[in-house]
Amino acid sequence: MLYPLKFQPILKDKIWGGSKLKNIFQKSGSTDKSGESWELSGYAGDESVVINGFLADNTLTELIEIYMGDLVGDAIYEQYGWSFPLLFKLIDANDNLSIQVHPGDEIAAERHNSFGKTEMWYVVDADAGSELTIGFTNDCSPDEYLDALENDKVESLLQKVPVTKGDVLFIPAGLVHAIGKGIVVAEIQQSSDVTYRIYDYKRVDENGNERDLHTDEALDVINFNAAVQPKIHYTNALNKIVPLVQCDYFTTNLICFDQAINRTYGTIDSFKTYLCIEGNCFIEYNNEKTIVYKGDTILIPACIDEIGLLPEGEVTLLEVFAGNIE
To answer: What is the value of pTM for the model shown?
Structure first.
């Protein structure tokens, strides 16, 4: 019988990484350059491994091969097969990330045999004055963009967005973006690692080399229109399910609670994922309790119709389904 599944995080050092994954989430094995913790991944070469119950030591892909629609949902299995469609990360930007853009499904499939990359961010922590870079301030032509890039002025064309803890942003494929220094985000995205880096502040690696840019590849991917307000407006409410993002690839809700909540999923044909942003809680299923600590990500198989969420104090969870769940 399937049950709520916990996985070993996959930590990745980055040139811009820091120590907040260790300090905020107590991520075991993190360093002072840990930029990303891949919390739940079926991406080839970076597949999450179960750490609880009788399925411990199995990879996510192995479980999909065995349990198919019971694990991910019948419609999702029919569409994606053994591929897990989403990737969950915690990201610590101790320095500015490169300015980048991601291709959509068509170009990603054609060039990289990959899914595209639409994503969302939930701001877990932000230093005073922290900013994200999100899209162009005004409509821009490719020629204007290339000229600014050539003259080291591309940042002057881009919109800076101040952020604080709890802000939510939706980043569709084609939208130029960057996470700024001092920001920690939870990222929910399509299962893709295709990134076109368009500017990196002339930064060099430990060998004194500037990182590669992908100017040509990015040109027919970028949305050059002025960016609309990127923040998702929502009103938080204790012990309620608060919708955040609905798109073709995922649906995300926010649950802040200090009382026990029963979640009944009805006809939703998808796995469920809970990423714990604040506090600790238990997930109760089949008279068994699974502890969820701050920073944990838990996969609830599609065949499970109902669970209990039992808080220890006040808890904040991101609840995620695959696809656009009405």
So the answer is: 0.96
